[in-house]
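Students often ask why inverse folding is considered easier than folding. One informal answer: many sequences map to the same fold, so there is more than one right answer. In these notes we will look at a single instance of the problem. The structure comes first.
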């Protein structure tokens, strides 16, 4: 059943990509080997001040990052231990960050972008990558994100665990443009 759902998701992922107006982050060789898919959008959460003083307010433009989840799920299919999966995700995100910085530096609207943000339940190693976390304060939005993470968790974890998600609520993650540059150098 799990493999069937993964196959369906793999099939429908290109449609999601188009509907959500995402863009692949490519490296210098123009191949799509980066785990990030992005779009510039208006931030809709509560205002936040990052550790380096960058202030992100409601309606500021941010580069919203989306992990290419189905790609990661397919890559981790043969991994049996959650620690190995966590290491794989961490390494893949870390290795994708230089291309993310390059993408932002070359974007025509780079000066309008206040920072980079995403939403994840996998925020344990975020600080080592330079990200800061903040809770999602809108209860309806947090519930919607929680439901979407149930599907991802069900496909990733063996056995699937709602207990895991109880302890790993979706959070915003942020990194300023300056901190992203420092992180990759």
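Output (designed amino acids):
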């Amino acid at each position: 059943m799990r493999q069937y759902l993964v196959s369906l998701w793999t099939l429908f992922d290109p449609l999601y990509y188009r509907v959500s107006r995402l863009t692949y982050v490519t490296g210098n060789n123009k191949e799509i080997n980066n785990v990030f898919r992005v779009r510039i959008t208006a931030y809709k959460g509560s205002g936040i001040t990052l550790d380096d003083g960058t202030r992100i307010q409601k309606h500021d433009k941010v580069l919203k990052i989306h992990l290419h989840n189905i790609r990661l799920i397919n890559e981790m299919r043969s991994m049996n231990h959650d620690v190995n999966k966590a290491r794989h995700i961490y390494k893949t995100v870390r290795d994708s960050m230089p291309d993310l910085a390059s993408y932002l530096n070359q974007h025509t609207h780079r000066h309008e972008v206040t920072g980079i943000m995403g939403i994840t339940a996998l925020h344990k190693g975020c600080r080592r990558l330079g990200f800061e976390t903040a809770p999602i304060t809108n209860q309806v939005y947090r519930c919607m994100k929680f439901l979407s993470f149930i599907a991802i968790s069900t496909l990733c974890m063996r056995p699937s665990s709602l207990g895991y998600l109880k302890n790993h609520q979706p959070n915003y993650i942020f990194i300023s443009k300056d901190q992203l540059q420092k992180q990759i150098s």
